[in-house]
Amino acid sequence: MSDQEIEDFEVDNLSDTSRMIPGLPPYDMDDQLLPMEPRSACCCWAWTLMVVTMNSLVFLLNLLLMVTIFTVVLLPTIVVVYFGFQCHSRVLHSDAYYCKTILDDNSSSALIILGFVIMSPLIVVAMAIYCSLARHLRLFMCFQPYSRAVYKGVKWRWYEEGGLCGCAREWNTQVKAWV
């Protein structure tokens, strides 16, 4: 076979999937990772303090949201286990009226066991609620990289997403995720 026949043979055997590789993306000068100008030492410390403060506030907001959700969802477990331990004769043995008339040691043990049995599914439900809410509010997009403090001209992540933490941007309803 000659070289021309080999080239024609190779071109004919190319599949349609090999043509699915997209071309190079258009480059925008604003989005390129060009060497950026570093900040001065004093300015870098000030920006570092601001970025650390912002990231700490976002962390505390996430922690507060998580504690609130877990407390509300796990409230039945907390109440059942509390009353079980409060009325059991070998633990606290309260002198409350309901402990003397309604709950004896067997029923208190049953409440303690029930509370710990229903805890596992409720923890899963609480985590699913927190993750779903954090994803919809884009809370993790609020964390800023350290390079924001070191170099001039680094854009805020949430600014590009359409508002503070992406909350102002319309949510993409086409993407579905199973939790």
Q: How would you characterize this protein structure?
A:
With 179 residues, the protein is an all-alpha fold. It has a domain of 62 residues. 57% of the residues lie in helices and 0% in strands. It contains 7 helices and no strands. It is elongated and about 90 Å long. About 8% of the residues have low confidence.
Concise synopsis of the structure shown:
Keywords: Membrane, Transmembrane, Transmembrane helix. InterPro entries: TMEM88. This protein has about 180 residues and is mostly helical.
- Number of helical stretches of at least 4 residues: 7
User: How many extended strands?
Assistant: 0
User: What pattern of helices and strands is seen along the backbone?
Assistant: HHHHHHH
Mean model confidence by pLDDT: 75
State the secondary-structure class.
mainly alpha
What would the principal axes of the Cα set say about the shape?
elongated
Q: Which percent range describes the beta-strand content? A: under 5%
Unreliable stretches (pLDDT < 50, length at least 5) are: 25-30, 165-172
Radius of gyration: 30 Å
Distance between the termini: 58 Å
Helix content: 55-70%
Largest sheet at a glance? none
GO molecular function, one term: PDZ domain binding
Main location: membrane
Subcellular location: Membrane
InterPro entries: TMEM88
